[in-house]
Design a protein that fits this description.
The complex is a heterodimer of chains A (241) and B (122).
Chain A (H helix, E strand, L loop, with lengths): L4 E5 L4 H12 L3 E6 L3 H10 L5 E5 L5 H14 L3 E6 L14 H21 L4 E10 L11 H21 L3 E8 L5 H4 L3 H9 L9 H12 L10 E4 L8
Parallel strand pairs in A: 1-2, 1-4, 2-3, 4-5, 5-6, 6-7
Chain B lengths: L2 E5 L6 H20 L3 E7 L9 H21 L6 E6 L7 H7 L9 E3 L11
The chains are: A alpha/beta (241), B alpha/beta (122).
Chain lengths: 241, 122
Amino acid sequence: MTARVALITGGARGLGLSIAQVLAERGYTLLLVDRDEAVYATATGLGGDSGGVTGCVADLTVSDDVERLVEFVRGSFDGLDVLVNNAGITRDARLGKMEPEVFSSVIDVNLLAPLRLTFALDSSFRDGSSIVNMTSRAALGNFGQTNYVASKSGLIGFTRGLALQWSPRTRVNAVAPGLVDSAMSRAMPEDVLGGLVAKIPAGRIGEPEDVARAVAFLAGDESSYITGQVLTVCGGRSISA
Amino acid sequence: MSTHVLRGSDPSDADELGAALEVAFRAIKNAIANDDAVVVVVPSEDLLGHRSPVGAAYVNALIGMTRAVAFEGARVGWKINTVAVPSTSELTDRQAIDAVAADGLTGQVLTLGTALVGRLIP
Ligand SMILES: NC(=O)c1ccc[n+]([C@@H]2O[C@H](COP(=O)([O-])OP(=O)(O)OC[C@H]3O[C@@H](n4cnc5c(N)ncnc54)[C@H](O)[C@@H]3O)[C@@H](O)[C@H]2O)c1
């Protein structure tokens, strides 16, 4: 049997890297896409000389880059089994201080780029394929993140609409992580981070692997009867007081 | 407090979606700066993606915007809600305002019509 092919955006580091590690362990052939050239080293580090992991530099907000990427996919693989729309950014500001350009720049990366890439890859998806969109618990609302919340909530809407449109060929789901141990969380003052962790019923911050395993579940056949859903991976934070 | 009623557009691709969201963001930001309450009226079919993926992305992004703004302004009394109605409905601005008039109601999605009864809560 040939290996299943997965494309992960934002695969150079952070959650994208963790997702890549888990999918590599499960035997997927991987294409990691990132605007950061570090993606080449990440791919080499994960795949060694096996040829099973390829890095590709592309800014997913640039249409020429997306076209090049789509051609690369068509030329390199028979088809695509998994797409993980993981690349994302934050540019926080209170509403009164958030300029429209700052609002739209986050919408561009977190919502429009996944939408454009997904549609551009339409003809590459194989029967039984799966898309996992990386949204966030913050889609329920968060301080100083009107742009981010709108983008992630919009991505949930896209997930549901596309799940209906592309069924039964392709399943489309979303993962919504809460606070995850990352460069961003480690940069927070200790007391602020402690306060946030105290609100998590699970009693600890999320690990990247917690999120990666949820993505792998939705990517694979174990979830073959699940589509149009959001799996919230937040240690219970979204239901706590 | 007067109320600004925002009726969304109907974007059909990513370019139109980005433009429509920025228009909505500017309108909401201006309304809040003027101390107005905000009601966003959206087609209920788009809550769960019954018409198109782009329509669903748009309407859910608007809902996200209202939730974030409500969250940020909860302590200082900002009031912003979403009213979802079937696209064939002729809900007036007055009816939309009255539907979410209760004190303390903010950051919520109120769905009018029966088509989504028994479906996922957006
Ligand atoms: N870390 C968390 O706590 C957390 C929580 C909830 C959701 N998320 C979401 O998970 C995803 C990954 O987050 P992370 O913490 O790993 O972030 P990160 O910043 O560590 O990694 C994001 C990657 O995306 C890439 N990227 C950004 N814009 C791009 C573009 N235009 N084109 C191509 N690549 C681009 C970056 O170069 C980077 O490598 C994001 O969508 C984020 O919103 C993260």
